[in-house]
Structures are given as structure tokens and as C-alpha cells.
Protein: Endonuclease NucS
Amino acid sequence: MLEEHLVSPTPDALTTFLQRQIHSGCLVQVAGEMEVQYMGRAMSMAEAGQYLVLLKGDGSLQVHGPKGVKPMNWQPKTDSVQVTVERGYCVLRAHRRKPDELVTITMLLPTLAQAIRLQEAAFELSGSEAQMQETLARHPELIEPGLTVLNRELVTAAGGIDLYARDREGRFVVVELKRGRATQDAVSQLARYVDAAQRLTGGVVRGILAAPEMTGPARLELERRVLEFVQVTALPALEQQAVQPGLFD
Amino acid sequence: MLEEHLVSPTPDALTTFLQRQIHSGCLVQVAGEMEVQYMGRAMSMAEAGQYLVLLKGDGSLQVHGPKGVKPMNWQPKTDSVQVTVERGYCVLRAHRRKPDELVTITMLLPTLAQAIRLQEAAFELSGSEAQMQETLARHPELIEPGLTVLNRELVTAAGGIDLYARDREGRFVVVELKRGRATQDAVSQLARYVDAAQRLTGGVVRGILAAPEMTGPARLELERRVLEFVQVTALPALEQQAVQPGLFD
DNA sequence: GCGTGTATATCGTGG
DNA sequence: CCACGATGTACACGC
Structure:
């Protein structure tokens, strides 16, 4: 799995290594003192420091500092990655055409370069909004008795309505789901959809925000707009699962 | 800078290594076959695959697969990281209290473990919205002649207004900035602020969306709400800088 | 700790 | 390609 491993390579050796490994499909790493420059949607300059570069097989690039999940610099996709020797340093340029972006890394003092082969396996996530939507579409009574779901992800000019339904009295209902605490933004979003639906149908349309909880200001905004709130949870049985023995032994 | 380096360590050796290095302030890596489980805001399970774990000195954790900038699993902050041997495997548990989250990694076949010392240096970013705001606050004429800025980041019940100003005719103006293409959401946001300002002042308040461009639907929504658009760019001189010689030689 | 908003957001989806 | 919205968003900032 560790395909290649260089310690304190010379600029030439690092350049050759990178040129060889970049298209190998491996995850390629370089650690050491470097300077990183970015130009594109914004611009940034990181002066000489010790960083870790990850270049993945799909062409994505990230430069990590000592802190945080988020890389200091990155490039989600690259159209070309060039490695050259310039002024005695190995220089890596990762370019992306749309949007036009360039990350330039000057390897001042590389101390480590290696290639690792990774392999992804099955990955399952529960508790996403998509899953909530599926559950509620199958069991709309969890929102309100007598509710009938007409559409999921109904596309309108205002955007996609999570659930479009009819209540037991025949009124149309727009449901906006949030998997976490709902904010004012969620209320604005719901209001926009309700407006759009009202313009389309001509009648009165109810708007329901379905979320585990909401912020105080969101509640005020919701009441001001005469919209409704229904409590739903993304992970109904989480509490039970959390007390399963063996987790913190 | 490369503080320690183990190849295909035994579970015991890996456990000892991790327990020692976790509080060293180094960036700690483990690569190899592993199983990753997450429980907290949601739940996830990654079956046995080849992944790369990064544990940084600030307690953040990320598990990378072969593709993408975003880690497959992560933990932005941890309150405790425990490493034990269980059923013959080295098991790492990264726990966070608020929100209550747990990432569990079972190292099935570690092929590489190492500790690297990183050091951050000066980092400068241009073209952020904050910088746009500063520029426009100093040169409000770029938005409109005769504009006087009253507040930056004015906090209201509806949220923070980027720029609050008065036009040459004395009307209040709410300016919402976007550093990229503005969407319907941005228009909703602006509308919410304008509503709030109108309720406060009692008079008519203008709303200006200042961005480099906007989407088609956003434009329609803007017009429907009788709001205005002004073109501003986050990086005014980018084109000139992009054709500087030496970039693609 | 909450609420809010930005981000070079990234990423997937659907038209 | 564009538009839109979710994300276990992360992260910084103000109260």
C-alpha cells in the first residue's frame, strides 16, 4: 500500500517522483517547508512554512497546516498539474480552467514525499435530510394527520420544494425540512416557496417548517409570516443507540 | 520534521505510538485498512477500506478516501481521543461533547504511521467579502454617487446588514454584498433586511444587492421585490494580474 | 454557549 | 454548463 517513500529528496528527485506518481492514481504526499500561492476566485499567499500537501488520484489538491479540518489551500479539481524545477526548487502548479484558478507550491525544503494507494469501500450515512424526506413522504402523518404528499422536490421558479402536500381540508401545504436547528434563512426559504405556490394556485397555501428545533429569531419570523412549525427528528432512535453498552468502556 | 515513522506496525506498536504522539502537537498520520464509524448529529459506517487518517495537534481528526477535498469522516474538535487494543486491533475513539459525537476507527491492517511537525507561517488572503466591504465602505461612490455609509455589519433582529447607508436624497439604503454570483437566497436575505429596516424606520428603504453577477432567477426575484442590483467585483485587477509573465512558462 | 453569516466553501442533483 | 440546496458543513465573530 505504501508505494514509494522518499526522505529529504533533492529538488530533482522530488520532481521526478511527482511527475511519475501524479498519474498513478495514488494519494501523493509532500511534507516540508514550502510557499503556497493561490490565484483565482480570490488570491492568497502563504509565506514559507511547514505544510503537508495531499494530491489525490482524482486530481484534487489540498495543503494542510497544523490546525483544523479545512486545508489552508486547496483545489477541488485540476485540469493540469505541472511539476518543474525552477531556481533550484521543485515547483508544483495545479491549474483549473473553470473557474480559472491556479495553486502554486514552491517546495523550499521537502523532508518527506510518499505515494499511498487508497481504496474506498461501502459507505452508509443515516440521518441526512434526504432520508428524513423519504421517511416523511412515506409517513406524512408524522407531520400532521390527514396529510397527503403530492410531490417531493417539486421544482418551481423559486426553487425545489421539499414536500408539496394537501391537508385534510384540501388546502395546499408546502413543507420545508431541516435536519438541524432551523434558522431565519429556513423561514425565508419556506416563505419564498409559499409565495410561489400561492401565485401558481391562486389560493391560500400553508407553509410548514419541519425540523428538530428552531432558533428564537426564526420562531418570531415564522409567526410574523403566519407559517407553522412541526417538530421532527433526523435520528429518532439516537438516544437509545447512544446508551448501547460498549461505547465508552 | 519527520519525527517518527513506522511501517506496518503491530496493533500494540501502533497503539503505543498513537498514545505517545497524540499529545505531541505533531500531525499524526495512519494509513492502511480500517473501518470507520460515526455517531452524533448523524450516523455513518464505512466498511473495511484503505484510508488515510490525519490527527492534528489541535485535536481535529479527518479520514480521507481516495477522492475529493472533503474527508470521508471527520471531527473538527475533540474533547478526548482514546486509543486502545480491542480484539487484537488498535481502536481509536475521538469524542466531542457538544454536540455529542464519536468517531471510532478500527485499524485492521495499518501499513504506515508517522508523526510530522508542521509550522504555520504568515497567510494573506485577498478578495474576501470582508475586504470588499472595507473597500466599499471607504468608496461608497463605487455603489452609487452621493451614498453615505452609516454602518457596517449593522446588527438587527433579522441579522447583520453588510452596509447601511443613506442616498443623496436621504433615503435609507440596505446593501447586501456577495463575492460571487448572487442567488435567490441572497435576494431573500436582502429582502429580509429591508423589511426589518422599514419596520424600524417606518419609511421606505432601498435595497441594493452588490455582487459581480447574479443568476437569472435571482434577477427575476429581485425585480419582483423592487430591489436593485449594482455590479462590484471582489478582485478588480485580477485580469491584469493573471497575464503577468511567468505564470505559465 | 447561541445566533448569524461567510466560504477560493465542496459536493451532488437535475434541467 | 448552470442553478439550487444540503452539508455530520467548518470557521470566525459578536452578544
Observations:
- Chain B has a mean pLDDT of 94.
- Residues 38, 40-44, 70, 73-76, 99, 101, 153, 155, 160, 181, 183-185, 215-218 of chain B lie near DNA strand D (CB under 10 Å from a C1').
- Chain B touches chain A through 78 residues (CB under 8 Å).
